[in-house]
Design a protein that fits this description.
disordered N terminus; Leucine-rich repeat, LRR (right-handed beta-alpha superhelix); mainly beta
């Protein structure tokens, strides 16, 4: 009998479990639901579909392939029930999507998965989501993003994860966070920054050109501060470093910023050697 299409759901009597490009090209509805019998959505399955406005992924689907919905520029509503893995660039360039709820089932989101979603304002990881890593460039250039609720067990924010999210201001880091990689929050709209105790590494240019920041305190747990971490933060008046990091890179702040530290610490020596303004705690 072949495939039967009914209200946006493809059903197969041949026990296929992959929703592929061939099926995707046949989809013309504005509202699409992909569920049983499918377990996986194939690479490029509905790439550049400009008709779809609402997409519901049913509990049976566990994996979404590379570029599966890339360039679906009119997609406004997305439900990811039961999905465990979203591969590279799967939803890149979905420029009408305004909110994104990441369910507790979704543990692995690969590079560029939601990059350039220029209308999204809020991203929320569901309570009990156990993701420990945000992959490189996942939310890069979501330039209207204002709020991100991070997973409770997060340990690492990858390179350029929130690169040029220029309106991002609402963010609270979980206590489990250990590492912020290079350019992770490059040119964000942060006005306040509360880094958690337990953080160990802040990599190169992690907060470069966050021009709204005025004060930052780096926890004593931090052992590595990369180069240019807060460089270009033109309004940053005070950077407080009460600990004694093992590694401190070049030009961590602009000349106009005052670094507060403990007298005789490595940071004190760093300030003297590099002619930075210094105050003692």
């Amino acid at each position: 009998m072949g495939n039967i299409y009914h209200t946006g759901v493809w059903v197969s009597d041949r026990n296929y479990d992959v929703f592929d490009r061939r099926l995707g090209k046949s989809m013309v509805d504005r509202e699409i639901r992909i569920a049983e019998p499918y377990r996986r959505i194939g690479s490029g399955a509905m790439k550049n579909n400009i008709k779809m406005k609402r997409l519901q992924i049913g509990n049976s689907v566990k994996e979404i392939g590379e570029e599966a919905f890339q360039g679906c520029s009119n997609l406004r509503f997305l439900t990811l029930d039961g999905v465990r893995t979203v591969q590279r660039s799967a939803f890149q360039g979905c420029t009408s999507l305004k909110t994104l709820d990441i369910p507790k089932s979704l543990r692995y989101i690969e590079k560029n998965a939601f990059m350039e979603n220029k209308a999204v304002r809020e991203i929320r990881y569901e309570t009990e989501n156990l993701s420990t890593v945000i992959s490189p460039e996942v939310f890069r250039e979501c330039n209207r993003l204002q709020l991100i609720v991070l997973p409770e067990k997060l340990e690492k924010v990858g390179p350029r994860a929130f690169y040029k999210c220029k309106e991002l201001d609402g963010i609270q880091f979980p206590a489990t966070l250990k590492e912020i990689e290079e350019e992770a929050f490059y040119q964000n709209g942060l006005t306040e920054l509360h880094l958690p105790n337990g953080l160990v590494k802040i990599s190169d240019s992690a907060f470069f050109k966050c021009t709204q920041l005025e004060y930052v305190r780096i926890p004593e747990s931090v052992k590595i501060i990369g180069k240019w971490v807060f460089h270009g933060c033109n309004r940053l008046k005070v950077l407080e470093i009460p600990g004694d990091p093992e590694v401190v890179g070049d030009w961590i702040v602009n000349r106009s910023c005052t670094i507060r530290c403990r007298k005789g610490s490595k940071i004190d020596k760093y300030c003297q050697e590099n002619d930075f303004l210094c105050e003692y705690l």
